[in-house]
Each structure stands twice: as C-alpha cells, then as structure tokens.
Design goal:
Elements (H helix, E strand, L loop, with lengths): L1 H16 L12 H4 L7 E5 L4 H14 L5 E4 L1 H7 L5 E9 L2 E8 L13 E10 L6 H4 L1 H15 L3 H6 L13 E3 L2 H9 L5 E7 L9 E8 L5 E8 L10 H9 L3 E3 L2
Parallel strand pairs: 1-2, 1-3, 6-7, 6-10
Antiparallel strand pairs: 3-4, 4-5, 7-8, 8-9
Helix pairs in contact: 3-6
C-alpha cells in the first residue's frame, strides 16, 4: 500500500511539474536538469577535515567515472557556487550526520530553471560528532552509489525525485548480509563476491529532529540494496531490529550477526 501511494504521488508530481507555471519560464523536470551532467566538471571541495578529505581525494581518483572532475578549495567553491557550469561534491553536517552531497551550482530564483542551483543527492556517511572510521573504508562505495543514482536519474524522473530509496529493492537471494562492522568492512576491502555490508549511520544524540540511516551495500559491486531513514531516539534505533533482519531474510539473504 505504501509503495502504491508513493508511486501515485510521484506520477502526479511529475505530471504537474511538466506544466508551465504562470509568469515563469519553461519548467524542466530533474531528469532534464541533469542532462548536462556528463559534460560538466564536478568540483570536489576539500579544505576541512584533512584525514577524511585525503580519503575522499584518493577515492575520487579511483572511482569517479561519469564526469570530468577537479579538486577545489572552499574559497574557490565560494566563487563558483553560483555558476550553473559546475557540479559540486561536498562534505556537510546536518542534524548530527555527516553527508557527502552532490549539487549543481546556480542562483536561487533564477528564471531559467537550467541555471538554478539544486541538490542532486546526498548520502549519509558517518555521525558528525563521533565518526567510527567506517566512512574511510566505504568512501569508494559511497561515490559509486552517488554515480549509480545519477546515471539512473538521468533516464528516470521517478528516480531523480525519489532519491536513494529508488535504488533499494534488488533481490538479495544468494547473498550473505554481514551485520558485524568488522566483518562487513573486511568483505568490502576484499571485494568479496555476494557479500553485503550492513551499515547504520546515527547522530551522537537522539531527539525529535534526529534521524538514523540503515543501508545494505554490496561488497564487490557497491550496489545500494537497502536504504532506510528512521527516527533516532536511542542507540537501539541505530541497530537492525529483529523485524528488519527477518524482512532482509525474506528477500532471500542469509544474515550473519557476528
């Protein structure tokens, strides 16, 4: 039922998004606004956390494949952020979570939608106040997930508007889901075939406006197999519950706890 309602909402949204708004220029859907991505340079912004950004720099050099890229400083980003000629890959904190964010440069309120700034996608990578180090192991996977999303969003408005949950849903049959962080990270480093790394990203403190994120990531292909956003109140919320483990098992996976 929830999936059908979301499907209906997206259909209606895309229908109305395609209609021109009174007094405005031509309206473009997200898919069309992303059409120039492969020809634009993605600026990777570095200049805050040296150790984390060294990992990001090395991972970009190995994994980035769908557009030209250059590294830049926060000062250069400040000068170029209003230009629609660039996309930007940045690290930013929000509600206790550290995100890797891909956005397009531009100006707010610009009549030409193709020159407006917008956020393409963001992926949570660690708690902002207490990162555990897994973000260093999984940085290449995060970059591949972002790129997989962009590739699909350029051909599907449904994906472009739904965000990372649109990548969720592939069969887990024949795969082994590793809940233990050390075992999961070792499988990613070894690119272990058919292994799936479980990841929970949570802030240091709970509260009404705080969320945690649960992901399943293929150890060898870096495919995002599950993405869920949950209210975060206590540390128990940042663990896979027994009900969630059963649902993963019903998708055909073998779940290994330790």
């Amino acid at each position: 039922m929830k999936f059908r309602l979301r499907h209906l909402f997206l259909t209606l949204f895309l229908l109305f998004a395609a209609l021109p708004a009174p007094g405005q220029g031509k309206v473009y859907t997200r898919k069309l606004r992303l059409a120039d991505f492969p020809a634009r340079t993605t600026k990777v912004v570095l200049g805050g956390n040296p150790f984390l950004e060294l990992t990001l720099r090395e991972a970009v050099a190995v994994h980035w494949r769908i557009s030209p890229y250059e590294f830049c400083t926060p000062e250069e980003y400040g000068r170029l952020a209003f230009s629609s000629s660039y996309y930007f890959l940045t690290l930013a904190q929000d509600r206790g979570i550290l995100f890797l964010i891909l956005s397009k440069g531009g100006k707010e309120g610009e009549k030409d939608q193709l020159k407006q700034a917008f956020e393409v996608v963001r992926i949570p990578i660690a708690g902002a106040d207490d990162p555990g180090g897994r973000e260093l192991v999984l940085m290449g996977a995060f970059l591949d997930i972002i790129q997989n999303f962009v590739e699909q969003a350029m051909i599907s408005d449904r994906t472009a508007y739904a965000g990372l949950p649109a990548l969720d849903g592939a069969s887990l049959r024949g795969k082994t889901v590793l809940l233990d962080p050390d075992a999961a990270d070792a499988a990613v480093l070894a690119q272990r075939k058919d292994a799936v790394a479980a990841l929970c990203v949570a802030p240091a403190d709970g509260g009404g406006d705080r969320f945690c994120y649960k992901m399943l990531i293929s150890a060898d292909t870096h495919e995002l197999l599950l993405f869920e956003k949950r209210r975060y109140r206590t540390p128990d919320d940042a663990r896979f519950s027994e009900d969630e483990i059963r649902r993963i098992g019903r998708r055909g996976a073998v779940v290994v706890r330790d």
